[in-house]
Specification:
With 434 residues, the chain is α+β, with helices and mostly antiparallel strands. The protein folds into two domains: 11-330, BirA Bifunctional Protein, domain 2 (2-Layer Sandwich), CATH 3.30.930.10; 342-433, Rossmann fold, CATH 3.40.50. The chain contains 14 helices and 23 strands. The strands form six sheets. Strands 3, 7, 8, 9, 10, 11, 12, 13 and 16 form a nine-stranded mixed beta sheet that branches. A five-stranded mixed beta sheet has the order 20-19-21-22-23, sandwiched between helices. The structure holds one RNA strand of 78 nucleotides.
RNA sequence: CGGGGUGUAGCUCAGUAUGGUUAGAGUACUUGGUUUGGGACCAAGGGGCCGAAGGUUCGAGUCCUUUCACCCCGACCA
């Protein structure tokens, strides 16, 4: 993409109400803009990042044998009456009426709809197990949306549901999904922990959360420094007051707190802040029983499906990447999430030599299907560098005043280091890095 | 849902207490010129029914009423 043709409205100043780095930089970098309370538009850069994360989630799930579907976003209220959630979820469900005065709900989650889809279509134990998922818009009418993409009302979430003929098989799938989620978070380049969770309102027994470690995280977790044990404090302490007290502490304050207990492996435990970006639950038969969704077992007896449910906050992950990877200048995207992996910056577009090389390199990389941005704008060096740092391209090739000596520079966004490279070697160097 | 706050140029904000020329600044934008390695400089210019509706007044960004939106603290929340 030529920067001169791209719609990337960057700004010097952040919205006054943005407190989180991800919120500030995603708005300043022209990734998103606010439409209303908890509602965001994704502009071109934001859309690219969102789609990249979605693609990685889909790829790993498909490899693990999950089936992608798409459920209608607008759902009849009757669906929610059957499970009782039209009462229990209360005002979080946004209700609307059509021209016939029929009531509908904008889906906040989809246990009911997915069970209805499977019910009476899968009728034998021979057709189990089955894992269905979708990556689709959700709407939860939060009392107080905040923190940009981190806690919006409308958001993109992957929600998956599995169906089994036995608890053992459901637990097997639960473990498979835990490993699949680990692959996804690792591919995204995130530092994360799988922690034991409180099972909350959705119900069920086993429950694990995937936390992206970040100082600004809303959740407090305990992790071990020598094994991979981790737990949300909500799952450890029964005492509400204790949980509230810990949650109110900042990251720095938490680091000061000693934990006297040792991990069962003997390792040292400490408090961290995390962003909940994934959650997996063992549901059991809660929804299949409520909705009378049964299959026939080996003896021809009707039994409710054993179920598990799996969620990943895709749009929340966009913000999480930045919460974990940023500095005072802006975003630092990981290789897997960067909207463009390399940015070619011509320092002075009036210099013919510089433009010729820039153009040549740009077209060559484009021909190789490499995600490349070509900053061909008529702006000065400093302006374009600040812009590149704010957006957070992992690498920027600076074609500037050193060109007369046959040298260009490779700028690494994460380290902010510039390396001089002969013009003849830059192409191969880029291929090597990405 | 309880408490508090804010709506003025694309963006960040002054101005409102005490009503009174043509409503301001910075930034962004347009044009011309200079400049070209860290968000340049000079000059000229465009852009606002001051959130909306109603009211008081000779006169309202400013006062009154209603309403909408957004934000903050709390409660709630995969």
């Amino acid at each position: 993409m030529r920067r001169s043709r791209a719609f990337i409205p960057t700004t010097k100043e952040a919205p006054s109400d943005a407190t989180l780095p991800s919120h500030q930089f995603l708005v300043r970098g022209g990734f998103i803009n606010q439409q209303g309370a908890g509602l965001y538009n994704f502009m071109p850069l934001g859309k690219i990042v969102l789609e990249k994360i979605r693609a990685i989630v889909k790829d790993e799930l498909d490899k693990a044998g999950c089936n992608e579907v798409q459920l209608s976003f607008v759902t009849p209220i009757g669906l929610w009456d059957k499970s009782g959630r039209s009462e229990t979820m209360g005002k979080e469900m946004l209700r609307i009426s059509d021209r016939h005065d029929n009531d509908f709900v904008l889906s906040p989650t989809n246990e009911e709809a997915m069970v209805e889809m499977v019910k009476n279509r899968v009728t034998s134990y021979k057709d189990l197990p089955l894992n269905l998922y979708q990556i689709n818009t959700k709407f939860r009418d939060e009392a107080r949306p905040r923190y940009g993409l981190m806690r919006g009302r409308e958001f993109l979430m992957k929600d998956g549901y599995s169906f089994h003929s036995s608890t053992e098989d459901m637990v097997r799938e639960f473990n498979l999904m835990e490993n699949t989620y680990k692959k996804i978070f690792t591919r995204l380049g995130l530092d994360f922990r799988v922690v034991e969770a409180d099972s909350g309102a959705i119900g069920g027994e086993g429950s694990k959360e995937f936390h992206v470690l970040a100082d600004s995280g809303e959740d407090t977790i305990v992790i071990c420094d020598s094994c991979d044990y981790g737990a949300n404090i909500e799952a450890i302490y029964d005492d509400e007051a204790k949980i509230d007290e810990l949650n109110e502490k900042s990251y720095e304050e938490l680091q000061e707190l000693p934990i006297t207990e040792k991990c069962s492996c003997g390792g040292k435990l400490s408090f961290k802040k995390g962003i909940e970006a994934g959650h997996i639950f063992q549901l059991g038969t809660k929804y299949s029983e409520a909705l009378e969704a049964n299959f026939n077992d080996e003896n021809g007896r009707a039994k409710p499906f054993e179920m598990a449910t799996f969620g990943i906050g895709v749009s929340r992950l966009v913000a999480s990447v930045i919460e974990q990877n940023h500095d005072e200048s802006g975003c630092i995207w990981t290789k897997a999430t960067a909207p463009y992996i390399v940015n070619i910056m011509v320092s002075n577009i009036k210099d013919e030599m510089q433009m010729t090389l820039g153009e040549e390199l740009y077209l060559k990389l484009l021909g190789d299907d490499i995600e490349v941005m070509f900053d061909d704008r008529k702006d000065r060096f400093g302006f374009k560098m600040k812009d590149a740092e704010l957006i957070g391209f992992p690498y920027t090739v600076i074609i500037g005043k050193e060109l007369e000596n046959g040298i260009v520079q490779l700028y690494d966004r994460a380290t902010k280091e510039k390396t001089s490279i002969n013009t003849g070697d830059i192409y191969n160097k880029i291929l090597e890095l990405i």
